[in-house]
């Protein structure tokens, strides 16, 4: 999957929605943000196709991948690795990047042509920059906080080849 989207792009980044197993629906605050987003980036573990259908119906662009909990229906519609140029920023999306230790160097070696790599799997928000400049973002999960204090997702703006306004959104514990 490769998408090119010029101009300023307001992004909603999410992962590990696990619907309907971890929650019945996406949180209202995330759906409100979806209405403002130009593009959605989802780093896998959707679990149901209805969530993909919903995001595709309410967003101008969805850049997503399948995760380890996604079955054949989602794997038929989504790649393991996605790439998109949004606002002049070269994005990659994968579900799992492996252990935290060594992640930056490992991902920089694997994706030397990217500016930003969005990943999921751990449900742990992550924002670091690898040597060489690759930014790694994990939005966490908006539905399953696991051992984290909050359910989370990210928003950002991509414009003129720069990623700005990266904000981690936290939901109160349920």
Describe the structure.
This protein is α/β, with parallel strands linked by helices and 174 residues long. It has a single domain (2-171), classed as Purple Acid Phosphatase, chain A, domain 2 (4-Layer Sandwich). It is built from four helices and eleven strands; from the N terminus they run ββαβαβαββαβββββ. The strands form two sheets. The protein has a six-stranded mixed beta sheet with strand order 1-5-6-7-9-8, with no helix packed on it. A five-stranded mixed beta sheet has the order 4-3-2-10-11, with helices on one face. The radius of gyration is 15 Å and the shape is globular.
| Percent range for β-strand residues | 25-35%
Per DSSP, the total helix count is: 4
Give the total of beta strands.
11
Coarse morphology: globular
CATH fold-level label = Purple Acid Phosphatase, chain A, domain 2
Quaternary structure state of the chains depicted? single chain
Order of helices and strands: EEHEHEHEEHEEEEE
Mean pLDDT: 94
Gyration radius, in Å = 15 Å
| CATH A-level architecture | 4-Layer Sandwich
Distance between the termini: 35 Å
| CATH class category label | Alpha Beta
Main beta sheet? 6 strands, mixed
Fourth CATH level, the homologous superfamily = Metallo-dependent phosphatases
Strand order of the largest sheet: 1-5-6-7-9-8
Keywords: Metal-binding
Cofactor: a divalent metal cation
Enzyme class: hydrolase
Domain Calcineurin-like phosphoesterase: 11-156
């Amino acid at each position: 999957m490769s998408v090119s989207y010029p101009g300023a792009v307001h992004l909603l980044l999410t992962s590990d929605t696990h619907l309907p197993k971890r929650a019945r629906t996406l949180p209202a605050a995330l759906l409100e943000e979806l209405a403002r987003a130009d593009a959605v980036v989802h780093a896998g573990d959707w679990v149901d196709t209805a969530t993909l259908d919903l995001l595709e119906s309410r967003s101008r662009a969805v850049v997503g991948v399948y995760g380890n909990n996604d079955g054949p229906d989602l794997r038929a519609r989504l790649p393991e690795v996605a790439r998109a140029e949004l606002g002049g920023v070269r994005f990659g999306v994968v579900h799992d990047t492996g252990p935290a230790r060594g992640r930056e160097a490992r991902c920089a070696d694997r994706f030397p042509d990217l500016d930003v790599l969005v990943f999921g799997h751990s449900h742990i928000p992550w924002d670091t920059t690898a040597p060489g400049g690759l930014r790694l973002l994990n939005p966490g999960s908006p539905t399953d906080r696991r051992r984290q204090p909050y359910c989370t997702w990210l928003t950002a703006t991509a414009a003129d080849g720069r990623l700005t306004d990266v904000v981690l959104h936290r939901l109160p514990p349920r």
